[in-house]
Amino acid sequence: MTKEAELDFEGAMDRLEEVVRELEHGDVPLEKAIDLFQQGMKLSQLCGSKLEQVERKIEMITLEDGELRKKPFGARLEGDADDSL
Questions:
Q1: Cβ contacts of 68 within 8 Å, gap of 6 or more
Q2: How many CA atoms lie within 13 A of 68 on its CB side?
Q3: What is the pLDDT of residue 77?
Q4: pTM above 0.85, yes or no
Q5: Could you tell me the mean pLDDT of each successive run of 10 residues in the chain, 85 residues long?
Q6: What backbone torsions phi and psi does residue 46 show, to the nearest 5 degrees?
Q7: 1-16: buried (b, 16+ CB within 10 Å) or exposed (e) per residue?
Q8: Of 15, 52, 59, 78, which has the highest C-beta tally within 10 A?
Q9: 79's torsion region: left (phi>0), alpha (psi -120 to 50) or beta?
Q10: Could you give the maximum distance between any two Cα atoms of the chain, in Å?
């Protein structure tokens, strides 16, 4: 298998889907199933990490006091109606 660190997000997702299909097929020997499971966990972590990196790069542009301002992705906007969460 290609080293996980060398895969881009799409490549890691494609390989993860392959791993899931193999495991779902059901006739995989136990040792291979364990190896596939471990590969799947590493790929899942890689995908999560890459998504976090992208999320940190994304900025929202909001209008505050008549001016456009950049805010980090996921930041709450002033005046959000639902503060009960």
A1: 61, 62
A2: 3
A3: 54
A4: no
A5: 73 97 92 97 96 80 74 63 49
A6: -60, -45
A7: eeebeebeeeebbebb
A8: 15
A9: left
A10: 64
**Cα-Cα end-to-end distance for the chain:** 43
Distance of CA 66 to the CA centre of its chain: 35
Instruction: Tell me the one-letter amino acid at 78.
Output: E
- HEC string of 10-77 equals HHHHHHHHHHHHHHHHCCCCHHHHHHHHHHHHHHHHHHHHHHHHHHHHCEEEEEECCEEEEEECCCCC
Tokens 């992208």 sit at which residue? Answer: 54
**Residue appearing with tokens 């494609």:** 14
